[in-house]
Amino acid sequence: MLTSCTIRLTLFYKRMAEGNRTVGAEGSFTMTGIVAVAEIDIDAPTARVWNVLTSPEQLKQLWFGAEVDTDWKVGSPITWTGEWEGKPYQDKGEILAVEPGRLLKFTHFSPLTGQPDVPENYHTLTYTLTANTHLKLEQDNNGSEDEAKHSQGMWEQLLAKVKQSAESSE
């Protein structure tokens, strides 16, 4: 079992000459823009961590009070409905990949950004969970280093909640 409660956060970006693409640390997929990365080691079985990431009871707690609605099937919509800094919102996205206990990938768009609802304004969020219960969350398509740092701070909070919930559950 892991005992480390250190949250390692890294902001990395590697611009490639073609198309301003960014490659993830493992090179397993291509992401665009500046990528915010949050990582944490969790002292709990991967099945328990996966349950925290996907169960309706846990999601509202993780997603800053938002109601999350999806069936976690590839191609299905995902919505987040809530209130942020006094403003009601409904964010949306699409489930891109689900490998239970290992990978969860979906897009995310928030009208609160004030940007038009077009594909280039969506982020891709990718959770990767390893057998030694290391959880990594990457968010691509950040427009600036400041935007990525802001996202990174939110994901730090979310991963700390995942850790707390998974380690305290039986």
Using brief descriptors, characterize the structure shown.
170 residues, Alpha-D-Glucose-1,6-Bisphosphate, Chain A, domain 4, 24% helix
Structure notes:
The structure is a single chain. This protein has 170 residues and is α+β, with helices and mostly antiparallel strands. It has a single domain (8-167), classed as Alpha-D-Glucose-1,6-Bisphosphate, Chain A, domain 4. The chain has helices at 46-54, 56-62, 145-168; strands at residues 7-12, 21-23, 30-32, 34-41, 67-69, 77-84, 87-99, 103-108, 123-129, 134-142. It is globular, with a radius of gyration of 15 Å. Mean pLDDT is 82; it is low at 1-30.
Topology:
Layout: E1 7-12, E2 21-23, E3 30-32, E4 34-41, H1 46-54, H2 56-62, E5 67-69, E6 77-84, E7 87-99, E8 103-108, E9 123-129, E10 134-142, H3 145-168
Antiparallel strand pairs: 1-4, 2-3, 4-10, 5-6, 6-7, 7-8, 8-9, 9-10
Tell me briefly what this model is.
This protein is of the alpha+beta class and 170 residues long. It has a single domain (8-167), classed as START domain (Alpha-D-Glucose-1,6-Bisphosphate, Chain A, domain 4). The protein has helices spanning 46-54, 56-62, 145-168, and strands at residues 7-12, 21-23, 30-32, 34-41, 67-69, 77-84, 87-99, 103-108, 123-129, 134-142.
